[in-house]
Amino acid sequence: MSTTRPYAAGDRRPATEDDGGDPDVVPQPPEPVRRLLLTGESGIVPRARDFTRQALYDWGWLPAATADRRAAAEDVLLVVSELVTNACLHAGGPEELRLLHNAKALRLEVVDGSAGDPAPRTPHRAGRPGGHGMFIVQRLCLDWGVVRDASRPGKTVWAELAAPS
Predict the structure, then answer these.
(1) Is cis: bond before 164, omega within 30 of 0?
(2) Is residue 129 part of a domain?
(3) Which parts of this chain are annotated as the region Disordered (predicted)?
(4) What distance in Å separates the CA atoms of residue 130 and residue 153, rounded to the nearest whole number?
(5) Is residue 6, in this structure, part of any structural domain at all?
(6) In this structure, is residue 136 part of a structural domain?
(7) Residue 67 CB burial class (10 angstroms; 0-12, 13-18, ≥19)
(8) Is residue 10 in some structural domain?
(9) Counting Cβ atoms within 10 Å, is residue 83 exposed (0-12), middle (13-18) or buried (19+)?
């Protein structure tokens, strides 16, 4: 991140018509679960990142008041990018992105139709191009894994990150 910039790229809330603050509108609590269907879409990775960034604004992670909070939000956006990119490259494309949050953690889920399992390449070689996605996920997350649903083909790859303090 640049030290000359007072905020990280994309760390400003998008302008909306609601910025005027209508006194007749009762604020609703943010939804703890967000879903984005991705089947058959183009520009999937930036779309997933934008969707996640908006959820982070709605949940109060952004705009970030401290460097630690900004880093936590950037980690979330990076992990979303890695999980969705892996689904594009290795699983025939993602079907859905789900974001679930509570006071302690944020869970990211990417659903795809593939039977294959993601795994960090071992041994990890930092100088080699490619193959770093799941290693990055493993390093940034509290935990990650794969869930299979017996009623449908494919899997859900999930990752959990700590909520900023």
Answers:
(1) no
(2) yes
(3) 1-31
(4) 27
(5) no
(6) yes
(7) exposed
(8) no
(9) buried
